[in-house]
Amino acid sequence: MRTIAILFLAVVAGLFGAAIFNTANMTPVFEAFLGRTNNYAKCSGVTDEAEQYLCFGLPQQAAWLFAERGDAAKARAVLADMESVLRGKPVKVEKFNSGAAYSFKLHFKNGAIGLFKTYDSDRFCHDCTSAREVAAYKIDQWLGLNLVPLTIEYTADLSSVPRCVYALPKIRNSASGNDYSQCKNIKGSLQYWIESAYTAQNLGYDDSDKSQKLRLLDAILGSTDRHEKNWMISGKYQTIEVAIDNSRTFRHAKQFYTVNPIYQKVEYFTCWQRQLDKICNSPSATCSATTLKSYMDKYRSASEADIRTLLGPFTPAADVSSFLAVRPIIVSRFDHNLNLFNSPLPMDYCPDPPRKL
Predict the structure, then answer these.
(1) How many CA atoms lie within 13 A of 183 on its CB side?
(2) CB 3.0–4.6 Å: which of 1, 58, 232, 269 could bond 53 by disulfide?
(3) Confidence at residue 144, expressed as pLDDT on a 0 to 100 scale
(4) What would the 3-class secondary structure string for the chain be?
(5) If pLDDT is split at 50, 70 and 90, which confidence band does 159 have?
């Protein structure tokens, strides 16, 4: 099923780049990306994978790979260049119709794209602000998980978007006609757009295909919305996971399910306890490896002051407090699962749904 989906997407995108660039062992998805770019010829002599990503115009993948190799200086330099691009003036702004958020795509001169979310972007979760998008990136970088694309605080001018007034929730009801001046100086977050990636849903993936790193990130963030449209797969060999749409985080106390009274059905959320328990559930689980434990050691050892400095003024105080309060609970559960995986702990934060509605 996955293979068919990948091949279909590749055929749709075009595979003609494969004839010029050596695509041995590359996935059809990445071959398709090469076919859409003008870089495959000039990059044919580049043998280093991270440098190839830079040559292809995929700096985020390059930064992640440099970081994983231990070349932190190079990774920081690439991220600094990316942020410099995003801080520039966009040449085009358009409404992005996807999901529950008010989002816009900002196009920049060198072809880079950023996804802008207004501060109060989530239509159904009023405390799920764009500040959480920035905080999720900061935490991902701090731990070195390298899953969340570069995300910055940003003030956007959306006045060039047709009917922009009606795409901004707080000013929509108070707008007078088509006063586009109200669409200027809109605060929110801007996330670097990842090229050559497809959602897990597009590729036929489901929860069982998530990496241990992604599960750990969602447990620490308290993500409740990591469905198959909110994580992606990229890279030459389809090995790079990308965690997007991170506003519904810092929700460790959120129940695992809710009952929709209209349709009389149970609606499920991602639950941090279940994600954590799926990491350490057997003697051979990846959590016993040095790498995954190193992330947890960094998480457990940071001082409260360091975490408050990391999250900074852009993160609401209530989110910082809840993040600190749940940390010992997450650490304790991780350690228990690592050493006593045959003695599962209760799902007090993730109760089973009622059998009858």
Answers:
(1) 23
(2) 58
(3) 94
(4) CHHHHHHHHHHHHCCHHHHCCCCCCCCHHHHHHHHHCCCCCCCCCCCCHHHHHHHHCCHHHHHHHHHHHCCHHHHHHHHHHHHHHHCCCCCEEEEECCCCEEEEEEECCCCCEEEEEEEEEECCCCCCCHHHHHHHHHHHHHHCCCCCCCEEEEEECCCCCCCHHHHCHHHHCCCCCCCHHHHCCEEEEEEECCCCCEECCCCCCCHHHCCHHHHHHHHHHCCCCCCCCCEEEECCCCCEEEECCCCCCCCCCCCCEEEECCCCEEEECCCHHHHHHCCCCCCCCHHHCHHHHHHHHHHHHCCHHHHHHHHCCCCCHHHHHHHHHHHHHHHHHHHHHHHCCCCCCCCCCCCCCCCCC
(5) confident
| Residue ranges of domains in the chain | 1-45, 215-339
**pTM to 2 decimal places:** 0.85
Contact partners, residue 30, CB within 8 Å, separation at least 6: 23, 196, 234, 235, 236, 237, 238
Helix axes 130-143, 290-301, angle to 10 degrees: 120
| Closest alpha carbon to 244 in 120, 127, 98 | 98
